[in-house]
Amino acid sequence: MHVPTTTFLATLLFTLTSRTAAELHTNGVCYKSVGGQAVYDEAATVASCGNYFMRNTGGEQWDTCPDCVMVKTGAMNHCNSAGWHIGGDEWTYYCELNGAEPMTG
């Protein structure tokens, strides 16, 4: 089975738009570093997306993600929020909680 690496992940996220000024994103994946390469971690991504879906910590846009859902783009699943609810710090927290590193777009 082919595992997506750094180049694939970067290409996927480069094609996805982000609101960097507000640090809000529409997509997120989790990965692990293996031999100096970023390798997609599907289990951590699924778990992190589920964690974020259940999040309810306040009234800011990133405090909840009522539309967080796993979607497939190409050969890889990723967490998607059409409403731009994925905050960079929050996604980092969930990826790390699930034993991986974050990548958003």
In brief:
The protein is an alpha+beta fold.
Describe this structure in words.
By secondary structure, the protein is of the alpha+beta class. The chain has one domain (6-104): Alpha-Beta Plaits. The chain is built from three helices and eight strands; from the N terminus they run αββββαβββαβ. It has helices spanning 6-14, 42-54, 88-97, and strands at residues 18-19, 24-25, 27-34, 37-40, 69-73, 76-80, 86-87, 101-104. The model is unreliable at 10-21 (pLDDT under 50).
The fourth-level CATH homologous superfamily is: Killer toxin KP6 alpha-subunit
Taking the sheet with the most strands, its summary is: 5 strands, antiparallel
- Total of helices: 3
Distance from first to last alpha carbon: 25 Å
Low-confidence stretches: 10-21
Main CATH class = Alpha Beta
Net shape: globular
As for the number of domains, it is 1
Helix percentage range: 25-40%
CATH architecture: 2-Layer Sandwich
What's the total count of β strands? 8
- What is the H/E order? HEEEEHEEEHE
Looking at CATH, which topology would you report?
Alpha-Beta Plaits
Q: How large a portion of the residues is in β-strands, by DSSP E?
A: 25-35%
Indicate the topology.
Blueprint: H1 6-14, E1 18-19, E2 24-25, E3 27-34, E4 37-40, H2 42-54, E5 69-73, E6 76-80, E7 86-87, H3 88-97, E8 101-104
Antiparallel strand pairs: 1-2, 2-7, 3-4, 3-6, 3-8, 5-6
Helix pairs in contact: 2-3
Keywords: Signal
Signal peptide: 1-22
